[in-house]
Amino acid sequence: MDRRSFLTVNAKKHPKPIPLVPYQGARVLSGTQPYSGPWTQTEVLHLLRRTMFGAKKADVDFFAGMTMNQAVDYLLNVPTTQPTPPLKTYANSTTAGDPDAAIPQGSTWVNTNTTDGGINSQRRVSLKSWWMGLIINQERNILEKMVLFWHNHFATETQVIGTGIWCYQNNLAIRTNALGNFKTFVRVITLDTGMLRYLNGYLNTKTAPDENYARELQELFTVGKGQDDATPPYTEADVKAAARVLTGWSVNGTTNSAQFTLSRHDTTNKQFSSFYNNTILTGRTGTNAGDLELDDLLTMIFNTQDVAMHICRKLYRWFVYYEIDATTEANVITPMADMFRNNGYNIMPVLSTLLKSEHFFDVLNQGCLIKNPVDNIAGLCREFSIVFPVSTDIANNYLMWLYLQNTANNFQQDIGDPPSVAGWQAYYQRPQFHELWINSDTLPKRNQFSDTMNANGYTRSGKNIKINHFLFAQSMPNPSDPNKLVEDSIKYLFTIPLTQISRDQIKRDILLSGQSNDSYWTIAWNTFISNPGDMANATIVKTRLASLYQYLLRLAEYQLS
Amino acid sequence: MKRRDFLRASLPAAVLPTVINGFSLKSFAADSPLAKLLGTGTDNDHVLVIVQLQGGNDGLNMVIPIDAYSNYLNARSNIAIVQNRILSLDGNTKTGLHPAMTGLQTMYNEGKLGIVQSVGYPQPNFSHFRATDIWMSASNSNQVLVNGWGGRYLDYEYPNFPTGYPNSSMPDPLGIQIGSVTSLVFQGPGMSMGMSISNPTSFYNLLSGIEDAAPNTLAGKELKFVRQVAKQTSQYSNVIKNAALAVTQQSAYPANNSLADQLKIVARLVKGGLKTKIYMVSYGGFDTHSLQANAADTATGNHANLLKNVSDAIKAFQDDLKFLGVENRVMGLTFSEFGRRIKSNSSSGTDHGSAAPLFVFGSNANQMVHGTNPAIPANATTNDNIPMQYDFRSIYASMLQDWLCVKNNDLQQIMLQNFQNIPIVKTSACNPAIPNTSGLTLIDNYPNPFTQSTTIRFTTSGGHTLIQIMNTLGQVIATPVDREYPTAGTYSIPWDSQYLGTGVYYARFQNGAVQQVRTMMKVK
To answer: Rounded CA gap, B75 and B386, in Å?
Structure first.
């Protein structure tokens, strides 16, 4: 009995609640027990697509030489040194005397304060370009996927934060804590300059408590709103009480750090609801009252069961699938959450368990994730090893990254500026979730982008980025055989293999121009290899490859990971 | 499926030899009198435009209670609008508009705007995301619905979508969202009934080609979904593009106003001939926790800019609709997920609140302020919220019934409960102009005056005909005729007044859209 029919048989014995969109397929019943099945290219591709942006053939070959456990451990081992900060490639302000003007082109701006609105606007653009560059040039680890995950979780908008340095500090806080301890992470984010500005923590004083951060801290960042995302266990009074705990903080615009002012702090006791066991947090009075009360607040929040469940559901939706049925809640989320709490909210063990689990590698969980825009764009660039300007040409690299970041924005994912503090709708809006990425506006745009990269590419300042079809085809194991070329290309680009009938038709209609003799392609390919200067033949090969990859990237299958 | 839905769905197909009650459906088109007689009751060319104001709009500074001005000022002195700057409304001294909303003031005074006070729902929710879902799904506060009210309406109007669509009677998208993410409003019971576009002229044709069957897995489910979007996109891209290209001239819209940009596209598509019933546009930035108004001049600032853009955009839209000659086909409503607190905070902002006013606009809007100004306590505290006067779902239900002409019996299917009807739409909207019958006598009686019995004579043009006798209190005391007449003609029936006292009686004649009333006198 194969694995899928085995699962199907089991599914019949465990009737499930009827899902919203009728789904007649097999249900996933596997849990967090370690995966011990086959470790072939298929599993390597699945692991890399989910933990990195796209699966490059060179990366697949690299990880295929390891065991599954080694591969996951390798991916989770992220560098502790931070990348080169964003560099100045923008023009000086026309306002005289702005300190930014002293920064040379190609040096970082993150250590120089400015009050020039135009410069801050350019710095935000610089930051987003830099970030897209880090994604495109990611190393072989999970870091960039986690940075985007946490940005979606602790969502902030650079447009609201305004100050470029604070936007950078927010990004750095996420990078530094992405695989660390979640409770520590929440504390860091609470006092992050960007977040203090974004959710008005800097305006939260005893005379005018501002509930903005206190609400989202509970609703979005920690406790959540229950399994149905609609029944928060905490009360409105808890929001108000937490707001009072957090009074007194503001941002020092000179040192770019959080500062606490006792005279703005509400020193009275704060009473919480029965959800928090009617905890009373004692009002503190010293200069470190803000720190101590924040610690008390987080201790109270992290003593609830809900935090771990909420975060594990979000990790699940990011790495596996959006629908969490009762079986998955019991077999995957609950054990993950238990582990999260038992490990003092360290992120690594939970991720490691999920990524090494039977559930993660379950055939039924492969290929069902709709790529988010950044995954679509960065994945395409990486899978096809698109060549960027030389790394010393900083200005042009930033321009290329900016183009890709803008493209992601057109697909509705503007990194640095999600739609709201809840992040992107695709990760919380029922019932569609990830399907929200794909609609009658964005799907044609995705196709236009892949068409562009397949055709003339993007050109700026005389530099160009585009797919080199020939190099991709040449990296395949047997490109002179049109059957193998189609089959292997599909294996690397799609999670769902096409049928033999479809592959044959693609081969015939595209590589053979409607002919049936495979040798036409083989001869053309071999001629090109031996005599690339034969322009007529080179054109035959290149136009057919261009059509092949344009066609494949336009199929619905390419949108799935 | 309801009978009329079946007919509606079947008529355009017109290829299957379907027979109902002996009539071959092939033999009549969707617009034939017989099809109408069979009950395609909601056929109309009406369009609804939903304007979402994201973030929770401060209604109290938008529609200002002049008659409670001192309490209002006391509650929010740092952002309150100076009294003499409040824009007045014709015939209404108690309520005024924010000074930035001159466009909407004009529309009100021209009879194209209605204001509904204190719209909300019981047990208000203060979370942006949950409250938005409540408004979009039209659920109770404690109920999670995974489909939207617009989606449920469109599902009722166009059953079985997307199977069989587009077709000759509905060649166009059912609902259009300007933007890139289709909201919960359009989510139908099975799938989204809306499509999103950001630029109607830049559609891209998808390659047609072979297609493998999707596997019976989660991946297969998502694959089917992506393919379905791909197909819809290509199906509708041409009709949208053509509609957009058909309109070459529009009147002026304000620059740097994204709401105006969106409404401009809507006007273009309506005029271009799309039969799309619902459009949705959205405009963000209303979460004014701080710096809502400038301290030096509270009539300026972030909120003022937002309100100005809303007002300018809607005014320009209305002017354009008039210019394009489609003014009578379009109505709109605004909404925001909640209002804000009565009392402002000391950062010159307002925190999340509950009920708030909304606007109903269009040439078929009733020019009035529905409800009373909210009560403002003399010493408002930070916990004071505006109590709701109208359930937001009553607005939807009234719009569905009186603008999209959904029959009363069917409303509950869409709205899931019975909601109060509010006269936000002119009653004539779903009762098309009566054929010109002036000078024609369609009903009379003889003798008149009469002592005991009289003969009522009426001229019907066929179809359902109703005659009711009413007393001077408007009570129906008899219904001598209530039946179908297969052919047009003049008929007479005797009516015996029996025990009724002497005095004036009215005989009301109704035949299709036509009605006429005859005054009768009973004497001793």
So the answer is: 12
- Rounded Cα–Cα distance for residues A166 and A161 (Å): 7
ipTM of the complex as predicted: 0.90
Residue B17 main-chain phi, psi, to 5 deg: -75, 65
Question: What fold characterizes domain B47-415?
Answer: Alkaline Phosphatase, subunit A (3.40.720)
Q: Which residues of A touch B347 (CB under 8 A)?
A: 200, 203, 208, 210
* Contact status, residue A432 vs residue B196, Cβ threshold 8 Å: no
Asked if A431 reaches chain B (Cβ–Cβ under 8 Å), the answer is yes
Decide if B266 contacts B60 (C-beta within 8 A).
no
Environment class of A403 (CB within 10 Å of its CB; exposed 0-12, middle 13-18, buried 19+): middle
Cβ distance B351 to B341 under 8 Å?
yes
Q: By C-alpha distance, which of B349, B343, B388, B383 is closest to B72?
A: B343
Strand pairing class (B369-370; B113-120): parallel
A490 token code pair: 């599909």
Give residues 292 to 331 of B whose Cβ lies within 8 Å of A.
none
Nearest C-alpha of chain A: how many angstroms from B316? Answer: 26
In this prediction, residues B235-246 reach a mean pLDDT of: 84
Question: Domain residue spans in chain B?
Answer: 3-37, 47-415, 443-522
Cβ–Cβ under 8 Å, residues B357 and B114 = no
Q: How far apart (Å, rounded) are the C-alpha atoms in residues A16 and B329?
A: 47
For residues A104 and A88, give the distance between their C-alpha atoms in angstroms, rounded to a whole number: 7
- B225 vs A236: CB contact, 8 Å cut-off? no
Task: Report the percentage of chain B scoring pLDDT > 90.
Answer: 59
Is B160 or A363 the better-scoring residue by pLDDT?
A: A363
CA–chain centroid gap for A392, Å, is: 27
Q: List the single residue in A with minimal CA-CA distance to B343.
A: A208
Across the interface, of A208, A439, A447, the residue whose CB is closest to B196 is A439
- CB pair distance less than 8 Å for A440 and B236: yes
Judging contacts by C-beta atoms under 8 Å, the chain A residues touching residue B144 are 228, 230, 430
**B345 shares contact with chain A (CB less than 8 Å):** yes
- The encoded tokens of residue A518 equal 């495979």
3-state secondary structure A332-398: HHHHHHHHHHHCCCEHHHHHHHHHCEHHHHCHHHCCCCECCHHHHHHHHHHHCCCCCCCCCCHHHHH
CATH of domain B443-522: 2.60.40.3080
Chain A within 8 Å of B207 (Cβ-Cβ)? yes
Which positions 18-77 of A are in contact with B (Cβ < 8 Å)? Answer: 20-26, 28
Q: What is the pTM of this model?
A: 0.73
**Residue B121: closest CA among B287, B356, B399, B469:** B356
Spell out which residues of chain A touch residue B219, defining contact as CB-CB under 8 Å: 366-368, 495-496, 560
Whether pLDDT at A2 is above 60: no
Average pLDDT over chain A, rounded to an integer: 93
